[in-house]
Design goal:
This protein is mostly helical. The chain has helices at about 5-30, 40-45, 50-75, 85-100, 105-120, 125-145.
């Protein structure tokens, strides 16, 4: 592991930004009365980066995968009985559709969201899909907004370099 003098500064800034984005996302989701604010927290944590560009790059597949998985899971909740077979079929189809749409970075997210919908939300799949999407969107939105705030101390990241 190669530690540079800026490593502690980077760690503090990254941790602080992630904490602010996640805490804000949960507060907004709770204020709006959404059912599962934890997904706002998870989304904010998973896409947050010190680089605004990297944050946006992580956000897009996360959001697209969540949308695709929620729709696939909700649709499959009607013909398939809740259980391991439905989960497997939901994951398989959501991931294959993601790859077919040339969104490989969204495939795993699409798969697990679809699996969750058919596993635990068969009675009200569209309600869950809606709430899950809104919570994910709030988490991603807060991460993107926080990533746009200038860094407290200048630390040059490889992803900050101008593209050629």
């Amino acid at each position: 592991m190669n530690l540079t003098p800026s490593a502690p500064i980077t760690a503090i800034q990254s941790s602080l930004r992630t904490a602010i984005a996640a805490g804000s996302a949960v507060a907004i989701a709770q204020f709006l009365g959404l059912e599962y604010p934890i997904y706002a927290l998870i989304s904010a944590c998973l896409v947050m980066d010190l680089s605004p560009l990297k944050t946006r790059q992580l956000a897009v597949p996360r959001l697209l995968g969540s949308l695709l998985g929620a729709v696939v899971g909700a649709v499959l909740s009607y013909p398939l009985a809740e259980g391991p077979l439905a989960i497997g079929v939901g994951i398989l189809l959501a991931m294959l559709i993601s790859y077919g749409l040339r969104m490989p970075a969204a495939a795993k997210v699409a798969g697990y969201v679809s699996g969750i919908v058919v596993f635990a939300h068969g009675a009200h799949p569209w309600s869950y899909a809606y709430h899950r999407t809104m919570e994910t969107l709030i988490g991603i939105g807060m991460a993107v907004l926080v990533s746009l705030v200038p860094k407290l101390l200048g630390v040059k990241l490889p992803s900050d370099a101008p593209s050629k």
